[in-house]
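Sample pair:
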Amino acid sequence: FLFDNHSTAQTIIMMVNFIVGFLLVLLMFFLRNIESTEDAAETIRFILLVVPPFALGDGLFALVTTNALSSVEGSKSSFDLDVAGWNMIYMAILSIVFLFLTMIIDHPSHQKRREMLSFKSTHTAPAVADEDEDVARERAEVEKGQRTGDVVQVQGLRKEFSLGGGKHKVAVQNITFGVKPGEVFGFLGTNGAGKTTTMSMLTTEILPTCGNGRIGGYDIVQDSGKTRRLIGYCPQF
């Protein structure tokens, strides 16, 4: 959720896991064995158990040290609270909490609310110059209302992706077409022309920046739930 590039995310997460799950565990171990910092370190440890890498690393470290000291202090069960019991309890609870948090954050309804902030219902996409004759004829028929029987109708659909710093990438410039009942419609274009982005908008996976589209009479933005009930989509990767 915080990264645009998967390789950057993987590198940073590995570094964080190493620091939290190994170096921080060692630091807490040393502090807990110093009389003046023992109580503070124990309190900090319980707070840090809410971080899964720390809970895992601390639990494994506790198991190793307990086994090493078993001949001196006597054997203990791995499930004892002063061994790895608290770590297991924390991780069990956190696995459920983080699962629900992920589902809530990644739910399509929340994504739609975020994208609605950038949807400009009153804006019109800039005109496209030098359109092919058949494409221009299709646009004219749709814009003049001559295609009232279309089951799929797209008019002035445009999608821009923010690149940060006020910069935008136009994925779909201004597309208009209609699909008649029973028609097999060939949607062709070169790589990067915006075919996948257009289909993502029509299937309500993402919202357009401006323009409108209708499937079975339902608006893909305002009636997205009803739209999805009418379509089947099998993307090719």
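Residues 163 and 169 are 7 Å apart (CA to CA).
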